[in-house]
Amino acid sequence: MKYLCLIYSDETIWPKLPKAEAEKWMAEYMAFSESTQKSGHYVNANRLQGTHSATTVRIRDGKLSTTDGPFAETKEQLGGYYLLEAKDLNEAIQLAARIPGARVGSIEVRPIADLPVK
Amino acid sequence: MSEDAAGSARETVEAVYRADSRRVFATLIRLLGDFDLAEEALHDAFVAALEQWPTDGVPANPRAWLVSVGRFKAIDTIRRRARFDASLSELADRLEETGATAAGDDQLRLIFTCCHPALPPDAQVALTLREVCGLTTEEIARAFLTSPPTVAQRIVRAKAKIRDAHIPYQVPSHEEIPARLGNVLHVIYLVFNEGYSASSGESLTRRDLSGEAIRLGRLLADLLPEPETLGLLALMVLHESRRAARTTPSGELILLHDQDRSRWNRELIAEGLVLVRRALAPRPAGPYAIQAAISAVHAEAPDAAATDWREIVGLYDALLQTEASPVVELNRAAAMAMRDGPEAGLRLIDAILARGDLSDYHLAHSARADLCRRLGRSAEARVSYERALQLAKQEPERRFLERRIRDLGT
Predict the structure, then answer these.
(1) B166 and A89: CB-CB below 8 Å?
(2) Do A111 and A3 form a contact (C-beta atoms < 8 A)?
(3) B310: helix, strand or coil
(4) pLDDT per position as a tens digit, B158-217
(5) pLDDT digit string (tens) for B221-231?
(6) Hey, are the CB atoms on B87 and A116 less than 8 Å from each other?
(7) Whole-angstrom distance, CA of residue B83 vs CA of residue B52
């Protein structure tokens, strides 16, 4: 079963970090990725550019509308994700708890819907 | 088989249903991995028992028989559905391979699933009462003064999350237990409290709910005798021991101080005292164990005047160390008033109220009113009783406050 772990945090804190601190976080993320690759839980992961770069697209009455910014203004923003393989929600929660961002922000764990195989 | 034997077999089916149907259900959920399928299988198994036991005799192990029949009935159901959905036939094959062993801790798995922290709190309570205790949706709705469709919706949504997010039927691993057990105990305690002191409505207590909570507590204490599990069970049985003395025949509230202690249930007290000692053995003691210890001090006092208030204040201090909350502070203040006199208690309660933490909590105002009354400060007492009356939602409590206001005179 695959779970998408969405990493949310207050994105304004990251640019303010001293260089050494930022490198430490980087290293922790690398370590988490490597360890989940070794254990076979890792499927995919990416960090996202900040919400300043976000564009929201809609089609209404057949017309395309694009607006600047994320879909919703929130205190914590989506900053990246891990797609992980876990045997059930308990294992997914254990894994998500090890994502470094869990200590400053929050991780939303969402099961991937299986499409019925025809 | 004679008429008599057939009749007694029917009675056996009923008795097994009352005693064991939820255990059979828990095992079927583990085997089938689906609440609704297990519910149907349980029903089919008991229908089969009613048909077969009166003629064939009662099987040696009725529970194992029911699990096995329920499982086969479910496989039949899946096979029938598999004609329309090919993926189900694989499930049926898999079910036929796994044996129908009845494990003792299936109910424990089910409790941990129903009380999973990924489910909303009100759904955890509803699901536990429905699936583990076997209460109907109507009974749960009545107990929590909400409508059956609301309860049904909570349960349906919770089951959908269990299925879609793959919440497993599993007792958490040893490392996870500390994080997960607390939630299970909290759900059981919520059910107990709603039964012991209903938050609103006509009646002071709802005995069926506290009975269910104690049943769950005993089950958990049996299967997972962690100190806090024993502490919670001790707390519940010690509270329960006072039930008969807490109200007058007409349903009016009697405070602990004024209760006829000869009406306390000695059997429950004896059970509670043994449990408290076991719960307190490992240090530091947890919050349920400490609260049970406070209840035990009351249980051991022959009358209100002989209560060891020094010990109780000490236990509240310990409780504040592990679980600080304004309500615990309020209870400690009331104990201080008994130990050092009303003025000492009043100073503490005024400090808590001044912080604004409990300004909407009726018991804070009625505790303040009571201390003012004992100090002869009637005008202040009246103001606080009236504030408490504005906030109280339960009828017997409201009548109690009204009596107190009347007794103050004019």
Answers:
(1) yes
(2) yes
(3) helix
(4) 999 999 899 988 888 888 887 789 989 999 998 898 877 655 555 545 657 888 899 889
(5) 988 899 999 99
(6) yes
(7) 29
Q: Which two three-digit tokens encode residue B74?
A: 């479910």
Quote the CA–CA distance of B252 and B259 in Å, as a whole number.
12
Query: Please, are residues B211 and B196 in contact by the beta-carbon 8 Å criterion?
Result: no
A50, two tokens:
């900040």
CATH for the A2-50+77-111 domain, from 3.20.20.140, 3.30.70.1060, 3.90.78.10, 3.40.50.720: 3.30.70.1060
Residues belonging to chain A with any Cβ–Cβ distance to chain B shorter than 8 Å: 1, 87-90, 93-94, 109, 111, 113, 116-117
Report CB contact under 8 Å: A90, B165: no
Contact B296, B272 (CB under 8 A): yes
Give the residue from B315, B348, B313, B312 showing the smallest Cα distance to B330. Answer: B348
Taking contacts as CB-CB distances below 8 angstroms, the residues of chain B near A109 are 165
Task: List B residues 252-291 in contact with A (Cβ-Cβ < 8 A).
Answer: none
Q: Is residue B309 part of a domain?
A: no
Count up the domains in chain B and report the number. Answer: 1
The single-letter code of the amino acid at B221 is A
Quote the pLDDT of residue B104.
54
Distance of CA B85 to the CA centre of its chain: 41
* CATH number reported for the structural domain that contains residue B86 in this entry: 1.10.1740
Asked if residue B79 is part of any domain, the answer here is yes
Domain, as residue range, for B24: 3-97
